[in-house]
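Schema walk-through. Below, the input block comes first and the output block second. Nothing else is stored per chain. Lengths vary across the set, and this one has 110 residues.
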Amino acid sequence: MFTNMVPDLIDASTRLASAPGLWSGSAPEAVAALSTCYRPHRLLLSHQATSLDFRHHLIACRDASLNLLPYGPELVVDAGTFVTFYMVEFPLSGRVDIQYGERSRIVTGR
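--- output ---
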């Protein structure tokens, strides 16, 4: 469905990555930063993960924002239930397993 969008998303992510942002190798720092921007949540690193390569670049608009959020290793982001906003994800590589209620969806990048 989004196959034709991948080059545009990669270009947009490259531009977004040049914006000022936050970098951290610490899971607690990444959680604190995103809990402040969005809502409290947890990061659960896979057992194979030895480090985190978290970056957050943000362009804020009126009632929305565009975010680039690479984490590095495989992990789980547990942000609970979103009540006051929506999050739409477009992975550029790898995959995102999104669960909402009893439903789930897998979105893959390249």
